[in-house]
Every structure is written in C-alpha cells, then in structure tokens.
Amino acid sequence: TMKIWSQGKIVYILNAPTNSTAMLYSISGQHILSTPIDNRVSPFAIDLSHLAEGVYIIRVNNMAYKFVAK
How far is CA 49 from CA 15, 17, 42, in A? Predict the structure, then answer.
C-alpha cells in the first residue's frame, strides 16, 4: 500500500507503483512541479524547501495528499 506523509517542507512517498510521477499543486490548483519517483529509494523524499509557506496537494496516480508547508 502506498503511503504519503510530510514533515515540514519534505514529502515522503513509500511503496509507489513502478514508473509513478509525483505532481505538486497549489491549493488553488496551479501545477507547480512533477518529478518521477525512484522506487529504489525507500521512502522517496521530495524537498520542497524552496516553496512559500502554504497549503499544497501532492498527487501520485489516484492518491492525493494535502499538506501544509511550514
């Protein structure tokens, strides 16, 4: 089962399907970035320290996770 969680401005993804892509959106729906997930790294981490504080949504396949970047 895939799991997504965050700590501060780092989002972690565990057990993503092969060849998955993580897509990040602002809470208003603006696409911010897309990054392929390297399944050899467990959990896969995405450093979002360059983002302004706020609420974001990360989507991997059909799973979405809303988080607050602080």
Answer: 23, 25, 20
- Bridge partner list, 42: none
**Helix residue spans in the chain (DSSP H):** none
Report the pLDDT value the prediction gives residue 65, as an integer from 0 to 100: 97
Question: What's the burial of 12, exposed, middle or buried (CB within 10 Å: 0-12/13-18/19+)?
Answer: middle
Cβ-contact 69, 56 below 8 angstroms:
yes
Calpha distance 53→58 (Å, rounded): 15
pLDDT of 70 reads 87
Task: For residue 41, give the DSSP letter.
Answer: S
Two tokens, residue 51 = 């983002």
Please tell me the pTM assigned to this model: 0.90
